[in-house]
Amino acid sequence: MTNASATIALSSSTRKQPLQIPKAPQIVASRLKKLIVSGKLKEGDLLPAESKLMEEFGVSRPTIREAYRILEAERLVTVSRGAKGGAVIHAPDPGLISNYALMVLQCEGTRVAEVYQARLAVEPAAVRMVAAKAKKTAPAILRAALEAEREVVEDAADFAQAIAEFHRLVVELSGNRPLIHLWGAIHEVVVQHQALAVSAYRRTTQAEEIVANAAFGLRSQEKLIKLIEAGDEDGAELHWRKHMQVANKTWIAGYEETTIAEIMQD
Questions:
Q1: Helix (H, G, I), strand (E, B), or coil: what is residue 111?
Q2: What's the CA gap between 65 and 78, in Å, rounded?
């Protein structure tokens, strides 16, 4: 084999990009992070003393402290100095997923209408999972949430919060962890938007119509619970898709071009 044939051809774009070699603190932080993610280091555990980590990794004290700073920035450790100090382990916080996703969505100018499109794409599928896997446990939880809605139907902000909570439980009860974690950002937007929408609606609508519309939505939720209880996967998914198609038109009306950033409160 000639040298030419043994040479690996690199694209021009690859040649222009310098190879990023991790620095010692990044390597130490990465190894400690793997221990946390794998469960070998658990919530509340205390990392060994700096001197022991220096010996174990063969690095200096500044390197260990820089690794701590990396882990602190990711909220995986809390470090306190002094004779009784140390680095306390924290499990990864799911809330960070939704918080960061929400910042990205706001920065990108995402519209409220897109959030409801996402809900429509996900919730009927989640309902199917609930009917398949949690038909014995989910109905009681959802009925309690439904009763909570009925109790606050007269209060715009509380009612909006209760509606959003019912939808959150539908996703949570699916047991699908990727959906549950990614749902957090959507949930925050929905809570804020629906509080605004319900308040505006009640300022311009007669009390009788408000009560009738609320009752219709609650009956639809009750039907969903019965379908889940029966283990009717097809029926539950189809019903909730139709429910959300109608509901989305109502929620989005007047907010078609409104962005998430415009409705989120500090």
A1: strand
A2: 12
Collapsing DSSP states into helix, strand and coil, what is residue 174?
coil
- Amino acid 135 reads K
Tens digits of per-residue pLDDT, 137-160? 999 999 999 999 999 988 877 888
User: What's phi and psi for 183, nearest 5 deg?
Assistant: -70, -20
DSSP annotation of 78 reads E
Query: What is the Cα–Cα distance from 220 to 210, expressed in whole angstroms?
Result: 16
pLDDT tens digits along 164-213: 899 999 999 999 998 898 888 888 888 888 888 877 777 776 555 655 67
Digit-coded pLDDT (tens) for 16-41 = 666 667 799 999 999 999 999 999 99
Q: Which of 51, 73, 75, 78 has its CA nearest to residue 63?
A: 51
Amino acid at 86: G
Q: What share of the chain is helix, strand, coil (3-state, %, to 5)?
A: 70, 5, 25
> What single letter denotes the amino acid at residue 94?
P
